[in-house]
Amino acid sequence: MNTSPSQNTVFLITHEFFPKRGGIATFTGEMARASAALGLNVEVWAQNAPPENDAEWPFPIWRMPLKGTHDLTCQLRLAVQLIRRRRELRNATVYLPEPGPMLTLMLLQRFNTFRPKHLVLTFHGSEVLKFHRNPLIRPLARRLIRYAKRISVLSGYTRDLLLTHFPEARSKILLTPGALRSDFAVVPSSSNGEKSKIIVLTVGRLHPRKGQLITLDALRALAPKFRGLIEYWMVGSTAKEHYEHTLRAAAATCDFPVRFFGDIPDDELSGIYERADIFGMTSVDYGNSVEGFGLVYLEAAAHGLPVVAHSVGGVAEAVADGKTGLLVPPHHPAQLTAAFEKLISDEVLRQRLGSSGRDWARRNNWSHSAKLLFNEELESA
Q1: 202 and 330 part of one domain
Q2: Which residues of 282-310 are buried (b: 16+ CB within 10 A; e: fewer)?
Q3: Do residues 96 and 119 lie in contact, with contact meaning Cβ atoms separated by under 8 Å?
Q4: CB 212 within 8 A of CB 202
């Protein structure tokens, strides 16, 4: 695959691209799409996957011969590809929107074998802690940050986290907040008739950090008259099997319906949102893993759902407390149960928060974030 790089070419190198799903994969795809729409030459180097849908993207995609994990084998395979094609990248902008390829570049910079003209990075939150807490990675991350031309973050929380642990980034940081997917659309529910229950919905992989068990426990602690009004729905793939087993065991003891939908395609997920009444995702810090922003909160708000969430990480920048949802400090179960009770018992409040959320969710757009991050390339285009 031959490319003639120029000053306005952006090579986006990632392990997190379609058909992968999740917040980082969404961010990566949308930033690439928005940059191409602004007139930049964009080429995406992505993890191996079936190529049948790649032609639908408005830029070329090179599927690298690697799975896209953080293990050493994957890092070495990416290193080989970068070295082989280094001449194409010397005068170009290389954009690493997530930690996978950053780890590879940290290894290569020790040998000065890969030095693009401009290096642009995006940090999401968890990788900041992982890089800093690893004594072998920490100095390599500092060197990478020093070399970077620009660094973006999705939230003020991640910006502060990065500056606390890597102050070298101070003069380079730009805030590029997430937004709704460019193909986002509200699809009316196919369900007919009156609902007999108030549906509380969580969308996210089944993982302790996403807090499904915390939400379930909060709902179990409701007074009987409120428990009799609800159903709890969980949508998401299994990230940790033992956690799903724990969830299912807890669900079996509930005196209200609990449904596990598994992973659902985006084009079907809208109908699930439309059938729900309350969105609850009570994320918590889990080891080195934090909630840097939370695009799923915007998606729920865009469907008119009031949100119940923990005030951790960057969640407060995705959920406006008292305007689009209710935020509760983590590890305060009684307050969390009270927040759910407040929404379950007050339909007017649910509608008011949900209505505000529809506008709130659309306040950011990918074009603005891409324009901010690649302003220098756009000016030279």
Answers
A1: yes
A2: bbbbeeebbbbbbbbbbbbbbbbbbbbbb
A3: yes
A4: yes
Q: How many residues does the chain have?
A: 381
Q: Which of 268, 289, 335, 345 is nearest to 308 (CA)?
A: 335
Q: What is the pLDDT of residues 345-359, one digit of tens each?
A: 999 999 999 999 999
Structural domain tally of the chain? Answer: 2
**Residues 353 and 368 placed together within one structural domain of the fold:** no
pTM above 0.90, yes or no: yes
Q: Degrees (nearest 5) of the Cα angle 269, 271, 274?
A: 115
Please, which residues bridge with residue 43 across strands? 11
Give the whole-angstrom CA distance, residue 170 versus residue 270: 39
Over residues 275-303, the pLDDT tens digits come to 999 999 999 999 999 999 999 999 999 99
Q: How far is CA 176 from the centre of its chain?
A: 13
**To 10 degrees, what angle do helices 156-165 and 126-133 make?**
10
110 and 81, same domain (yes or no):
yes
Are 312 and 209 contacting, i.e. CB atoms less than 8 angstroms apart? Answer: no
Q: Are residues 373 and 339 in the same domain?
A: no
- Statement to judge: residues 308 and 207 lie in one domain: yes
Cα–Cα distances (Å) from 143 to 109, 203, 333, in that order, read: 8, 37, 42
Whole-number CA gyration radius for the chain:
22
From 379, 373, 381, 377, select the one nearest 172 (Cα to Cα): 373
Chain center to CA of 305? 19
CB-based contact 180:273 (threshold 8 Å): no
Q: Are residues 233 and 278 in the same domain?
A: yes
Domain that holds residue 62: 9-179+364-380
Residues 54 and 168 in one domain: yes
Q: How far apart (Å, rounded) are the C-alpha atoms in residues 177 and 318? A: 9
Do 308 and 325 form a contact (C-beta atoms < 8 A)?
yes
| Residue 309, SS3 per DSSP | strand
187 domain-assigned: no
